[in-house]
Amino acid sequence: ASPHVSVSNGSDAEGGAELVELKVIWNKNKYDVKFRLDGTGADLKQRIHALTGLPPAMQKVMFKGLLPEEKTLREIKVTNGAKIMVVGSTINDVLAVNTPKDAAQQEVKAEENKKEPLCRQKQHRKVLDKGKPDDVMPSVKGVQERLPTVPLSGMYNKSGGKVRLTFKLEQDQLWIGTKERTEKLPMGSIKNVVSEPIEGHEDYHMMAFQLGPTEASYYWVYWVPTQYVDAIKDTVLGKWQYF
Fold first, then answer.
1. Which of these, 141, 217, 197, lies nearest to 207 by C-alpha position?
2. pTM score, two decimals?
3. Staple 153 to which of 62, 99, 164, 211, CB 3.0 to 4.6 Å?
4. Domain 118-237: which topology?
5. CATH 3.10.20.90 fits 19-93, yes or no
């Protein structure tokens, strides 16, 4: 009789009827989820996105190690009651790492600071006074170029660490890479891009990506070659979609 058992299981699965009960654990929250055994890791990430608001690109899903996106739950032998751990921060949590304790106070400071050019503000001077990174990319004045196919590198972030930007157009993501980690941000989650030439080095800009609702959520990048500034803004903010 055993061959029949596997056959009947097979036909159930084709009807999409075979579900497995999972416990999805994220950020101290537990979710009971029924999910298709023949759904893939990538499908599960979409479901987790719906539950938690955490974009798939930000999720690390763990089941006996990292859950492979292309394999089905059946292939990786997920059984009823399996615990699925999700590690990842929403964009606002990522920012909270760098956001001051009192965002309101920061807003007031931001208002006061608006009167002077950004590059004279203390938080920016700290980085700019280090001078140009030794591996800064060459800049071309008075020319607007398309984004290069290689990552933009040789820039600092606001803690003075090296940072590089990779534009993954096919995935509609901006990757912000530092020595410690790479944040993969969906382009649609970036609310604004601001930039300003650096005083005394006008062929380079300081640029910020707004990742949350307030000014405290700007991710600053310094020493962006001027010829790429417009292309970066257009790419991230999706100007090209309007033509």
1. 197
2. 0.51
3. 164
4. PH-domain like (2.30.29)
5. yes
